[in-house]
Design a protein that fits this description.
This protein is α/β, with parallel strands linked by helices. The chain contains 13 helices and 13 strands. Helix 5 crosses helix 6 and helix 5 crosses helix 9. The termini are far apart. Bound molecules: pyridoxal-5'-phosphate (PLP). The site of pyridoxal-5'-phosphate has 13 residues, from helix 5.
């Protein structure tokens, strides 16, 4: 039998999806599974985006330009300008999701065995992209008791080696919901400039910030013009996860021209999805206001219900739509599987993402889960009730 690669063997499983077979089996047996595990919003895609695909009269579904169509990139630059981020169409590459932007960013700045420092817990697929690129993830621990704020900058400093190429942050954070302040971004800017590193910021949840907080982008920081790379996406912004459109943005033209070579190898981003995403830019502010109000009320309900459960500690999210909850158990992997296999309330159960897969440090996050609050309030309330009953039975 021919052998598959070491890299393939090392590819991590997604903690968000690995329990899917157990959920499918529960559903086959007639149970209802409430999905708290995955960030698939139930919010409607703006009609204007769907109509743009329905009503267009393309005769040939052609490749688009490698870096995305000119008109779309011009409009994206205008979107950034509205968000106090000054970039031009030439600073933007349209990618197949933020996912592809992440892999282009890593491919463009790091060689095999180079290192990228990432505050943990982090979006689990960073591990996958790093492994695929042969890059080593060097974690720096952020803590639930500090609401997952930026770890002390000395903790980053200690980890910098000649192989360090970048610091990667997610702002606001998946899975933590933490929003880095302007001061925290400035501290990161200082350290990356001092050590001549890149700062990659995954800002796919930029619009989802709560309680009158403001998002501060890395490219609002003038010192980061040559150091900053933004990873962005339409997936969550317009509830268009299936469109598969994202962007890589940098004012560093060497980064852009290098990333374009990776982009040329995959020819172009999807044409229909660019048409939909370009139209989505016309989405009225009222859509975002309504969506934000909905997420805030879901967050408030989720956190207050979780806080009522004995022994549960939860960090209050300031953005995105996830939270990490610490449970009075030892092994959240086992608990999550048991929920799907053995526990029901009125024939319903919940699926959660065990948080260990969001950490790179072995042993961390074992008693934590990530919850996505992408479901309506009555469902969230039922889900937390089921979790509470489950904990009583599980702990015994
Ligand atoms: C933090 C973060 N970055 C990137 C992505 C990838 O997004 P996309 O659907 O644009 O590939 C996700 C998706 O959930 C995410 O949560």
């Amino acid at each position: 039998m021919p052998k598959i690669s070491q890299k393939g063997l090392a590819m991590p499983q997604s903690p968000i999806r690995k329990l899917v077979p157990f959920a499918e089996s529960a559903k086959k047996k007639g149970a209802t599974v409430i999905h708290l595990n995955i960030g698939q919003p139930d919010i409607r895609t703006p009609q204007i985006a769907l109509d743009a695909v329905k009503n267009n009269n393309l005769k040939v579904l052609e490749y688009s330009r490698t870096e995305g169509s000119e008109s779309y990139r011009e409009k994206i630059a205008a979107y950034y300008h509205k968000n106090q981020i000054e970039v031009t169409a030439n600073d933007i590459i349209v990618t197949t999701g933020g996912s592809e932007a992440l892999s282009f960013a890593m491919g463009s700045i790091a060689d095999t065995d180079d290192e990228v420092i990432i505050p943990e817990p982090f979006y689990a697929n960073y591990n996958g992209f790093a492994t695929a690129s042969g890059i080593k993830v060097v974690p720096v621990v952020s803590k639930i008791e500090n609401n997952f704020a930026l770890p002390p900058i000395e903790d980053f400093e200690k980890l910098i080696t000649p192989k360090t190429k970048a610091i990667l942050i997610c702002n606001p954070g998946n899975p933590t919901g933490y929003l880095y302040s302007e001061e925290e971004i400035k501290k990161l800017a200082k350290i990356v400039v001092e050590h001549d590193l890149f700062l990659i910021a995954d800002e796919v949840y930029r619009e989802f910030v709560y309680d009158d907080r403001q998002h501060y982008s890395i490219l609002q920081e003038p010192s980061l013009a040559n150091h900053g790379i933004i990873v962005d996406s339409v997936s969550k912004r317009y509830s268009m996860c299936g469109a598969r459109i994202g962007f890589l943005v940098s004012k560093n033209q060497e980064v852009i021209s290098t990333a374009i070579k990776f982009a040329q190898a995959r020819l172009s981003p999807p044409t229909y999805a660019q048409i939909a995403s370009e139209a989505a830019l016309e989405t009225p502010q009222s859509y975002f206001d309504e969506v934000k109000t909905e997420y805030v009320s879901r967050r408030n309900l989720l956190i207050s219900e979780l806080e009522k459960l004995d022994g549960v500690v939860v960090a209050k999210p300031q953005g995105a739509f996830y939270c990490i909850a610490e449970l009075p158990i030892e092994d959240a992997d086992d608990f999550a599987q048991w929920l799907l296999e053995d526990f029901r309330v009125d024939n319903e159960t919940v699926m959660v993402a065990p948080a260990a897969g969001f950490y790179a440090t072995e042993g961390l996050g074992k008693n934590q889960i990530r919850i996505a609050y992408v479901l309506d309030r009555p469902t969230l309330k039922r889900a937390v009730h089921i979790l509470g009953e489950a904990l009583k039975t599980y702990i015994g």
